[in-house]
Amino acid sequence: MAREYERSLKKQKLIRYSVLIFLFLIIVFLVLRWYYLTIQSPHRAEVNEAVTKAYAETNLIEVMDTDTFIGDDVYTIIYGKNKEEQDIIVWLSENDVHTELVSDGISKEEIKERILNNEPDIELLRVTPAKWTDEWAWEVFYKRDDEKGTRHYYDFYQFEDGEWLETYTMSVMR
């Protein structure tokens, strides 16, 4: 009888501790989620403001994705559809709004394929629409390992035909 009572107490303690640990983990999760949303709220507000401006100033009717390009100006990049249901890209900065049909240029996938075919030893990190000097472009960010260490690169290609414009080479990371 005493053994059964001891087992019952151990079981109750185990259940109590399990519930407490579970509640603690839920509280930690909720606090981290609140912290993340608080940190992200200014960025989300900027993106929402840019999307609203794009709806007002272009023929954008549906947003599929957004991105950011930082060059001479900061651009919010909006991928979406226009009134004719065509895929478009909108470059939107404080002073500039530009729209291109995806079909009028080389696609993101074509740029990725071209880069990886020409440079199979790289790790592609990011491809985003950009503005290079006065041209609408693709920015390709990648890294390559060599005997000195890892080096990051920014390549710029014309949006219209994928012609190479410029490469920035970053210093070696050891």
Question: In words, what does this structure look like?
Answer:
- The protein is of the alpha+beta class and 174 residues long.
- It has two helices and eight strands; from the N terminus they run αββββαββββ.
- The strands form two sheets. It has a four-stranded antiparallel β-sheet, covered by helices on one side. Strands 5-6-7-8 form a four-stranded antiparallel β-sheet, with helices on one face.
- β5 and β6 (135-146) form a beta hairpin.
- Overall pLDDT, averaged? 91
Amount of beta strand: 35-45%
Structural class: alpha+beta
Question: Which outline best applies?
Answer: elongated
Topology diagram in text:
Layout: H1 2-57, E1 60-70, E2 74-82, E3 87-92, E4 97-101, H2 108-118, E5 123-132, E6 135-146, E7 149-158, E8 164-173
Antiparallel strand pairs: 1-2, 2-3, 3-4, 5-6, 6-7, 7-8
Concise description?
The protein has 174 residues and is of the alpha+beta class.
Question: Keywords for this structure?
Answer:
four-stranded antiparallel sheet; 2 helices; alpha+beta; 8 strands; 39% helix; elongated; 174 residues
